[in-house]
Amino acid sequence: MQKKVLVLVILLFGLNLFANNGYSKQDIEKMIAKMVVLGFHGEKVNSNDEIYKDIKAGLGGVILFDKDPNDKNKIKNVRDKEQLKNLNSQLQAVSKQKLFISIDQEGGIVQRLKSDAGFVNTPKAIDVALKGEDFAKQTYKLLAKDLKESGINVDFAPVVDLAINKNNKVIVTRGRSFGENPKEVIKYSSIFVEELKKQKVISVLKHFPGHGSSLADSHLGFVDITKTWNEKELEPYKYFIKNNKVDMIMTAHVFNKNLDETYPATLSYEINTKLLRYKLGFDGVLISDDLQMQAISKHYDLKQTLTLAINSGVNMLLFANQLAKPITLKQIVDTVYSQILSEEISLETIIEANKKIDSLLSKI
Question: In this structure, how many other beta carbons lie within 10 angstroms of the beta carbon of residue 48?
């Protein structure tokens, strides 16, 4: 009985607090929803689909994939150019606001838009760097045009990780880095960013504070870079921030006890706010890497993950829904809302994240 009374008191206090700030429960739920990017299954959208309802509820963005990860013979979102264009048009039509329609299109092993579906084939980053600047400009010009014509406005690229560890299985051996030298990485990633910008596609630098020195893959579990990370891995971020050339940054599920003794970067106030915001001066949108990856999901439940990520300085929460059991927008919104009521997350943090997101939306 006492517990029920306490919950009621918290709810009434919360509603009164928000009313004094001019925000209703629905207002706050929409602000939380705007901070979420979700993956979903489907080649088209209609009013009965969950993703349709999510967008109506204020979902900030979607992430698209070609194949269903649980059955590679099945399509998840992308069959061909015409189908993708129609899908993205349908998605955008549902939303009252501009919707972030995102994809991983780096080139090489990481490209969801493939040549057998009618899209341009993009070489891996290391091969682009070996062929020079003119080749890079032409390559990323074609990639950017594909995205624009398909209705995609966010590309989770370029990778600005340095190829420090030659045995790194997630970045280096897959050719996803432009090289070990920060100047080379800055040169080619700048070309990538510029070509995306010409087509009004938002670029996303990844994976902060650097994944190129790691020994393990954060898709599979905990990644400790304490002994391998080098401060020069921050150089690309310093360059892009100083020259005001960065739209969005993706934070990585890597742990470095010299930067934060307790949390991986995605959940770290020390890294995402003190280092990235205060020291490096980044004022844009910070998005998490997929929060369902095992480096996070093995160690933290949904409430812990959302609370820590938001409080660390993350503005957008990515749930790719590549697993058999998807996370729903309602689960995320309800969890964050309850944490606001209990003052584990401040409403001001949510408002600030929405301001950053709105500012970025004005660019597309």
Answer: 7
CA gap 337, 296 in Å, rounded: 21
**Whole-angstrom Cα distance, residue 282 to residue 271?**
12
Mean pLDDT on 223-235? 95
**In 10 A of CB 213, how many CB atoms?**
22
Is the whole model's pTM more than 0.85, yes or no?
yes
CATH topology of domain 31-361: TIM Barrel (3.20.20)
CB count within 10 Å of CB 342 equals 12
Q: CA torsion, points 145, 155, 52, 84, in degrees to nearest 10?
A: 30
Residues pairing with 37 in the sheet: 61, 318
C-alpha 49/C-alpha 87 separation (Å) is: 13
Q: What is the pLDDT of residues 66-79, one digit of tens each?
A: 999 888 889 999 99
The pLDDT score that the predictor gives to residue 5 is: 45
Write out the catalytic residue numbers: 219, 289
H runs (alpha helix) in 176-243: 182-198, 235-242
Mind spelling out the 3-state secondary structure of 91-123?
A: HHHHCCCCCEEEECEEECCEECCCHHHCCCCCC
pLDDT in tens, 133-191: 999 999 999 999 999 999 999 999 999 999 999 999 999 999 999 999 999 999 999 99
Give the CA distances from residue 168 to residues 89, 111, 163, 171, 182, in Å, rounded to whole numbers and listed in that order. Answer: 39, 19, 8, 6, 17
